[in-house]
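Q: What changes when magnesium ion is included in the input?
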Amino acid sequence: MNGALPRPRAAPPGADAELRPVTALKGVGESLAQKLAKLGIESVQDLLFLLPLRYEDRTHVVPIGTLRAGERAVVEGEVQLAEVAFRRRRQLLVRIADGSGFLTLRFFYFSAQQQAQLTRGVRLRCYGEARRGTLGLEIVHPEYRRAEGEDAQRTEDSLTPVYPATEGVQQGRLRILTALALAEAERQSVRDWLPGELLRDLGLPPLAEALAYVHRPPPGADLAPLEAGRHPAQRRLAFEELLAHQLSLRLLRREIRADAAWPLAPAGTLAARLRASLPFALTGAQERALAEVMADLAAPSPMLRLVQGDVGSGKTVVAALAALAAVECGRQAVLMAPTELLAEQHAQNFERWLRPLGLPVALLTGRLTGRVRQAALDAIAAGNDVPVVVGTHALFQEGVRFGRLALAIIDEQHRFGVHQRMALREKGRADGRFPHQLIMTATPIPRTLAMTAYADLDVSVIDELPPGRTPVRTVVMAETRRDEVVARIEAACGAGRQAYWVCPLIEESEELDFQAAEATHRALAEALPKLRVGLAHGRLTPAKKEAVMAAFKRGALDLLVATTVIEVGVDVPNASLMVIENAERMGLAQLHQLRGRVGRGAAESSCVLLYRAPLSPLARERLEVMRTTNDGFEVSRRDLELRGPGELLGTRQTGLMQMKVAELVRDADLLPRVQQAAEVMLARHPDNIGPLLRRWIGARERYGKV
Ligand code: ADP
Ligand code: MG
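A: The predicted holo structure follows.
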C-alpha cells in the first residue's frame, strides 16, 4: 500500500486533557472505572459524549394544585398526616399540602427512621411522577428531603439530565462525573475540531457550548426539541459525528485510490462481439452505467464503483461487458455471488455469452472438491486459460490464487461486508497492483443515504427497466380468501404459465419453517391435482434444492412451493404469478425482492400478498406501499422511513449503526452539508481529522484497516 494517506497523527496539544482516563477525575477509583467501562466510558472525553436520554425539570417548585397526573415535578408542602395503612400491603401514606392543594406520598418500603421523620408539620421538598390514586393525586416513592432554612429556597439551576444507566453507577454519580468532566473541559477548553467559519455557515454552536447545553440545559429550556434530538446543541454533535464517519470512509477511499491498478482500456472488440450476439440492445441507463464503469477501468488506480439497479434492471450484462474489458487487456475478471445458486446462474449466463467468443468460464464454489477443485485452482492461478471466474465465498479460501486478476465484480453487495470486499482486494494483489472493484446491488438506497453509507464508493444507477416488461400487478388479500388464490393458480398454470407460492417465515424455528412449507405443499398438491407441484426449502441439501429449482426453470414443474430460499436472483421468465403467504410478517425489501421473481417475461404478471388479520399499522402501511408502487427506489425510500437505515443496509456492513448521537433518518437533512464539510476539512484542515476520528470512531474498527 502506498504511504500517501494522511493517517491520523499524534494528538495535538489540548487533546490530551480530553483523552485522560476517567481515573484522573476526583473520586474515581478502579472499581468505578470498571463499571463505567461497561458503558463504554474510559476517558474524560467519553464522559463528555455520554449524552442524557432525557431530562427532568427540577428548576422550580410546582404548586400542588396545578399538578397533573403523568407530570414529573418538584413540589413542596407540609406534612398534614402520616399513617401506616394495610391495603393489601403494609404501606406508609403521607399527606402533604401547600395551600393550593394536597398530595399523597406512598411508600411501600420505609424504615422506622423514615417513619419517625415524616411527621405532621414537617416541610418536604419532593420529586416524582404524579399519578391518580385512590386518594387523589399521589407520588409513589418520591425522592424527598426536608425543606428547611436556606435550603428551602434552593432549586436546581439547570434541567436535570438522566443518563443511560449502568449497573452499580447511580444517576447521581453520573451527574457528578459529567459535572466534573464539564468543569475540566471548560478549564482546559475542550478542543473544537470544526473550524469556526464552518459552524457559522451552519448556524451551529461551538462544541463547548453544545456540550454544556446538552448536559445541563438552562431553566426554561424547551424540552420538546431536546427530547426529540432536534435542538441545535444536539444537531451540532450529530453533525460532528456524521462528519467523522464521512471522513473515515473518504480516507479509506483515498487509501485505495492511492494504489495502482491495471489500466484497462481495450479497443472494445470483444464487447462489440458480445453486443452483436445479444437478442436485445442495452437500455439508456445500462449504457450510462457501463460508460462510467469503462471510464474508471481505464484509469491506473482501482475503480470502486457501486452499480445500483432494481431487480431485473439488467446488471448482469453490464458486469459481463466490464469483464470483457479485463479479458481483452489480457487480464482476469472474477464475479462473486452470495449463494451457490446465484453463482451457478451467473456462470450459466456468462458461459452462454462468452463461450461463443472462445472464452471459457470457470465456476468455483464450495461444492467443488478434490482433484476437480485443484485443477480449477491451478488454472485460475496460471491465469491464461481462465479469463473469467465465477464463484461464491469459496473464492476467499486459502489456496485460491489469481494469476492475472484485474477486476473483481461483487453481486448483491448487501450480503457482503466491507471487510470481505477488502479481503478480495488483497487476494487480487499482484506486482503492487490491486484489482478494480465493481459492486452490484439490487437494494436501491436513497441518494443521501448512499452518499453516507458508501462514501468510499462511486455510485452508478440503472434507473430504467428493459422495455417490454409489463409491470407486476400487486393485490393484497386476507388469507381467508385462499380458495380464490388457488383458482388463480389453476388458471395461470392451465394457460401454460408457472407460479411461485412463498411460505411464511417462522423466525424462531427453522424446523417449523419447513414443516409449514411441507404442509402447504401437501395441501396445494391435493387442491391442484392436475398440476406438477415442487417444494424447495432451506433444509434440502444444496444438490436437491438445485434439482428442484432447475426443474422449475425447465418447466417440468408448474408450481413451486418455497420458503424464502428463492429470494435472490432466480430467473424464470415464464413464471407470472407469485403468492406470498403471511406477507404482513415480511419487510419491504424482502417483499420487493420476492416480487421481482415475476414480471420477467412479456406476460402480464401478478403478485398476491396474503395476510392474516389483524394487521398492525406498520404492516398495513408496508402492504399498501407494495400495492401502489413497483419502483424499487420508492419502496426503498418508504422502507427507510418505516424502519430506519439499520435494517435497510444490514448492520454488519457499515459502521453507521453504532453512532452515538446521530440518527440517519432524523438527521438526514444534515447529510448534504456533511459532504461539503468533509471536503473543507480534507482541503483546509487535515490536521483536525485525526483527533476527530479518534473522538467519534476511536479504536473501533476503521474501514481503512483490514
Ligand atoms: P438484475 O439487474 O436483477 O441482475 P438481470 O441482469 O438478471 O437483472 O437481467 C434480468 C433479465 O433481463 C435477464 O434475462 C437479462 O438477460 C434481461 N435483460 C438485460 N438487459 C436487457 C435489455 N436491455 N433488454 C432486454 N432484456 C434485458
Ligand atoms: Mg442480478
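Observations recorded in class: Residues 280, 282-283, 286, 309, 311-317, 442, 466, 571 surround adenosine-5'-diphosphate (ligand 1) (CB under 6 Å).
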